[in-house]
Structure formats: C-alpha cells, structure tokens
Amino acid sequence: MASSEHKNRLTQETSPYLLQHAHQPVDWYPWGPEALDKARLEDKPIFLSIGYSACHWCHVMSRECFDNEELARQMNERFVNIKVDREERPEIDAIYMNALIAMNGQGGWPLNLFLTPDQKPYFGGTYFPPVPGNHQPGFGEILRQAYDQYHTQKEQIQNRSGEILQKINSRQTPVAASENSAQTLINAAVQLLSKKFDETYGGFGAGMKFPEPMLYSLLLRHWVHSESNDVLMMVDKSLTHMAEGGMYDQLGGGFHRYSTDREWRVPHFEKMLCDSALMARLYLDAFQATQQEIYQVIPEDIFEYVDREMTSPEGAFFTSQDADTEGREGIYFTWELKEVLNLLGPRHAQVFAKMYGMTTAGQFERRNVLRVVLDMEKTAEQEGVPIFEVGHIIKNGRKALLEARGKRPQPHRDEKILTGWNGLMISALARGFTVLRKKAYLQRAATCADFIWKNLWQDGSLLRVYKDGQARFKGCLEDYACLLEGLIALYEASFESQWLAKSQSLAESMIDRFWDTNDGGFFMTANDHEPLVARLKNPMDDAMPSANAVAASALLRLGRMTGNTLFEEKGRQTVLAFQGEMEQRPAAFTAMLSAMDFMESSPIEIVLSGSEEDKEYQKMQETLYRDYRPNQMVVVYQGEETVKDIPWVEGRGPVSDQPTAYVCKEGTCHPPVHTAHALYNLLGRPPEIRLNIFDEDKKIKDMESQEQANFLNAMSDIFKHSGLGKK
Fold first, then answer.
1. How many Cβ atoms from other residues are within 10 Å of residue 710's Cβ?
2. Which residue has the higher pLDDT, 327 or 501?
3. Are strands 457-458 and 461-467 parallel, antiparallel or unpaired?
C-alpha cells in the first residue's frame, strides 16, 4: 500500500490519477523534459505506464506492483518511470496504444510500455500480475526482460521500434478513394453491422458489449433515408435492452462503461462523463424517431444524475466516477438480497426483487446488479398484486435504495474538467432543451460554456484540463471539435449571437492549428505542440466518435449556417481525406459517415420569426423538434443584426406581426406559414414506424381504471346482496 513516507514528483500534479501514485515507492515522473532528459543522459530505458482514475485494473496493478517495495526498487534502479493520465494527455495515449496494438494485436488499460530514451516503444503489455500465474509472467520477470533486451539487443530494438513507428505513421497516408456516395458507404456499413447484430439481446457481437452510440446514430440516419423497419428494430431492441439492463444504473441514472456479457447484465462499473453525454443525445434522437417514453426518461435521468453527482460548483462537469470502493469493484452499485429485505420488508422486497431479477446468489460476487427482467404488468401477474400497487412499491423501493446507497462509501470522483468532454455535455443539454423544452437544461449548458470559455480559452487557443484553479495542457483536436459542436448546438437552442461568434473564433483557430496542409484532415495535436514520435489523426471511432468526424460535422454545419465557405470546404475536405479508408472499413467510420451524409444532403433550412411570447410561436418551436430530422437547420430572425451572421435569413421577418416560419427543402423555398400545423405539413411526415410500441403510463392507467371498475362492481354486488341497497 502507498505510504505517506514515500513521496515522488507526482505530488506536484493536479490529476487525481497521478496523485493516486504520488506516495508510492516508485520514483514516478510526469511526462515532460525532466524525465525524458534523464533517460537520454543516463542511457536508461523508460517505463511508461498510462491509465486513468476510474480504471479498475489500473488500481489492481497499482496495489499489487507499484506499492511493492521490491518491485519498486527494481523499477527505480533500471528505468526512468513515467506516469501518464490518458485523459489529460490523449495524444500520448493514442501513440502508444497504437504501438501496443501493432506489437501484440490488442490493447487496453493499464497501458504499460518500455521505451528507448528517444521515446520509441519496444516491449510491453497491459495488466501484469506481481507473480507468474494464469500463463502470464510476473511483473518482476517483465522488468528483467525489458532491461536485458535494452542493454543486450540494442540494434534489434532500434529496428523493431522503427518498424512499429513506421507502421503507425503509414496509417496517416491517404488511401486512394473511388467516387462512392455517402448512401453507398452507409448501406455497406449497415450490412456489416446487420451481420454482427445480436437478434436476441441487441447490440453487436456475442461477448462483452460497449454502448457504441455512433453506430446507432448512423442506423437512425439510414432509417430516415431507407424507411427500413429492420434497421429501426435494431436500434430499438439494443437501446431498450441497454436501458433495462445492468449497464444502466437503475437507481441513480447514467450508464456504466460497458457490459461484461452478451445480455447487458453485469457492467464494468465506472461511469464516464463522455458516455453520459453521448448516450443522452442518442436517446433523445431515439425519442424523436419513435416517441417511446423510455427514450425520454433515460436522458432526463442522465441529466439529473450529472446535475446531482458530476457538476462542479462553477457549473462545469467532472470527468468520471470510479468502479471501485474500498478496493472492491461494484460494491457501491450492487446489493445483497437481505439488504433489500431489511430496507423494504418481506412483501415489498419480493415484488422489487421479482422485477429487478434479484436472487440470493446474485450475478456479481454474490451480489445483485439491478436490471429490469419483468415489466410492471408481468410482475403484477406473477405476484398477484394490482399494478398500481406494483408501481407504488417500485417507486418507493427505488427511493429507499438510492438513499441507502448514498450512505455507503462513495466511489472516487475524478474532479478534473476536460474541455472536450464538457463540450459533449453542452451539446447534449442543448439538445435536451430543444427536444424536451426544459429551460434548466439550456441554462446549465450556457453556464458550462461560459466557464470553459472564461477559463480554458486563452490567447486564441484552448487548454484541455482545469483542476484546482489551474488550466493546463494544450488542447487536442478533440477539445476544439467537441467544444465547437457544443457551442453550435447552444446557439441553435438559444439563438444568442455570442455562441455563434465564439464558434467562428474556435473554428478558425482549429483550422489554423491542426489542419494537415498536405493531405487534408486534422492532426490530433496542434502545430505548436511538443515533438512526439508520431503525429496522428485517428479518423476511426473508438469509444467516442472520431475527433476528425466531429470537426467535419461541426464545420459543415457552421459553414452552411454562416455562409463561410472556408468552414464548409474544410469540413468537406476532411471527409474526402478519409474516404478511401471508409470504403475499406465503413463500419469503423460511422461518425464520419454521418458527416458525409450531412455533406451530401440538401438540409431542411428553417427560419422562425415572431414574438417568443406568442403561444403559436412556441408551438411552432416544439413542432420543429418533435420528429427526428438529422439534417435540419433552424435559426431565428432577430432583425438585421442576424443577417450579418447568417445571410440567408435576409427578408425573413414576421409577416403582419404573426409568428412566421420559412422552410426551404430539396431545393425549394416554400411560402411562409403561420401555424404549427402548417409548419408540420411543410416539414413532411417522418418514416412510418412499425414497432410494437405502446405508452407504458397509458397502459398502467388503463389497467388501474379497469381494476377500479372491477372493484366498484364487486362492491356494488356486495352492497346489493347485503340487502342494504333496498329502498
């Protein structure tokens, strides 16, 4: 265990992850000139360990290996040891994760690599146990091998590390492309995804499953074009199973990182801000597409969770919550059946356990992960309890368990503020306002954007991390692209010109600092970034959408909105820069394919004008966001000042002081309309939905009404046969 008597250079850092290692016996350095110069001057190999504060196996290896005095002694004698928080330095993580995959065929965290003093990788892996076991060498043996290789096989190491870097850098070279349309490539991606689709439980593949929101966003876009009911079924089945499964926190809201099994039963319990933002947006899209209430409830619960547990006093958003408490994974989020029995009492606990699949054996280390295995109707049938009583039991039970859970030792929360991830949440909240019309969401998005702009936009460029009053590290492409997307969404929700002005300043800075003038597209790092062994672009999606795809989408949208041809052209060139790779692996580029779809589309352009206090004007606003139209652009005419920013609104003010909407679609601009009904007819009906959809609340109310009628009939019969009803 780390001891306070030990102290290394990480004590000067602000990263919660690095501070977790600040009192270990390992002589850790942060990434920087001091460590890199020491390695060169002393001709020592570098041991580079990359992780993040919510990573379970990072904690396990930390306890087992880095707290071990003997292993720490070997590390200190033989290596310069560098710790990196991957969330602070994604550019370093990306290079060496690519290197590990090139070496071993797979990667993950903790990411442990051995480098030459000039930062070239030659050996490594992920988690290493302290002693040999399960066909794995112990960490002591790994240290010996890495040290011996460096000192006895220098020529081979130089050749091998050179090949690895050449392989990584070769991926940055453009691939020749054909002239395939977006729809051709999207069709190919959908066919590939269909083959991997799990018909029983939703999702893709037959093992552990990540939520992968970009895939479902692309499927929804495809559904709009194709009207394929099968595609919508893939989305609906997957999102329903996710929402009802253990990967979703049934008590506190928000998604855990991924499911460890095919059935979405047991998650890996860490929670990440980026996942909350992306999943909220996806469920909002699904709500617009299907009008199913579950898809409204999930983003509302996510926003409530983020407000309650992940919001800083200044209104920005923290990064993550740990999977572990007191050294054990998932204890905070899971339950023994006897705990629920003590909290709710025998009868209510039985009903609660039936609906949420609880057993004495549990599903995870003899504890239960709450997941919906029966709906209220079936629970009522099986338990012989009226459905209104089941609803009452479940509501009160969830409240009681959440209160009890809040008294447990809390998971560690990483309270650094990341610019890019906050941009994602700004976008999600802004979308939440436009779809659900809750002003609190818009206010929270604006508060966060104000904070980021004030504290992390400095001298015309972005910084990435804010913690303990300090803004640090040059922003990566992810920060620029995700914040740009968020500011555009905030403008489209509020129509405050400041957000459009900030968007344009940010877009100009991004192009100036990250653009590849030779091959197009954006590098991960800016042109004034410290030199690294590779400069990557990473156009494919991983757990998050590719930053290049986010940048392309945002620039295309901003360019069309403002008439700035530079923005639109850079967005277009970004898509085309990666088209050859998309043609080879379309399902790996779903976010970029969405950008390409927008690029090739003729967007629906809508100008709304009139008094915001007018009831019909408000109905028109609601009408605009009732259905799923991913290529729709909405602006508000606010006088001639608006024309300076958005030229195509000229002459589109209110007619005869009435609320007025102007709609241009498919190359035609229609006469202005003045009612929500007329506007809806102009927008056109969405594709027909042929899902087995019903309104759960309505069904419950209908059943309650029927039960009440049955009760009154029974009482009438009793009253009649008692003789009391005779006059």
1. 11
2. 501
3. antiparallel
pTM above 0.85, yes or no: yes
* Residue 517 φ then ψ, to 5°: -70, -15
User: For residues 659-675, b (16+ Cβ closer than 10 Å) or e, as one string?
Assistant: bbbbbbbeeeeeebbbe
- 331-383, pLDDT tens digit by residue? 999 999 999 999 999 999 999 999 999 999 999 999 999 999 999 999 999 99
Q: What CA–CA distances, in Å, run from 607 to 112, 497, 631?
A: 54, 15, 15
Q: Which of 220, 215, 275 is nearest to 425 (CA)?
A: 275
pLDDT tens digits, 33-75: 999 999 999 999 999 999 999 888 999 999 999 999 999 999 9
Pairing of strands 457-458, 417-418: unpaired
492/554 Cα distance (integer angstroms): 12
Residue type, 276: S
Query: In Å, how far from its chain's centre is CA 608?
Result: 31
Burial degree of 429 (CB within 10 A; 0-12, 13-18, 19+): buried
> How far is the CA of 217 from the CAs of 231, 566, 589, in angstroms?
11, 27, 12
Give the whole-angstrom CA distance, residue 643 versus residue 645: 5
As a whole number of angstroms, the distance between CA 130 and CA 137 comes to: 9
Helix (H, G, I), strand (E, B) or coil at 500: helix
Q: How far apart are CA 277 and CA 428, in angstroms?
A: 6
Report residue 295 as tokens: 């898809």
DSSP category for residue 670? P
Q: Where are the alpha helices (DSSP H) in 257-293?
A: 273-290
Give the integer Cα–Cα distance in Å for 368 and 364. 6
* Torsion sign across C-alpha atoms 560, 561, 567, 570: negative
Whether the pLDDT of residue 721 is over 50: the answer is no
Three-state DSSP at 161 gives: helix
d(Cα 442, Cα 432) in Å, to the nearest integer? 8
Q: Which helix (H) or strand (E) holds 533?
A: none
Cα 609 to Cα 612: distance, rounded to the nearest angstrom: 8
Q: Which of 154, 16, 6 is nearest to 69 (CA)?
A: 6
**Through-space distance between the first and last CA atoms of the chain, rounded to whole angstroms:** 85
Phi and psi (nearest 5°) for 720?
Answer: -70, -45
Question: Which letter does DSSP use for residue 264 in this model?
Answer: S
Q: How far apart are CA 608 and CA 632, in angstroms?
A: 13
Q: Which of 242, 257, 253 is nearest to 330 (CA)?
A: 257
E strand or H helix that includes residue 678: helix 676-683
| Eight-state DSSP code of residue 326 | T
The whole-number pLDDT of residue 692 equals: 56
For 712, phi and psi rounded to 5 degrees? -65, -40
Residues whose CB falls within 8 Å of the CB of residue 182, separated by 6 or more in sequence, listed in order = 593, 596, 597, 599, 600
Q: Which residues contact 169 (CB under 8 A, 6 or more apart)?
A: 534
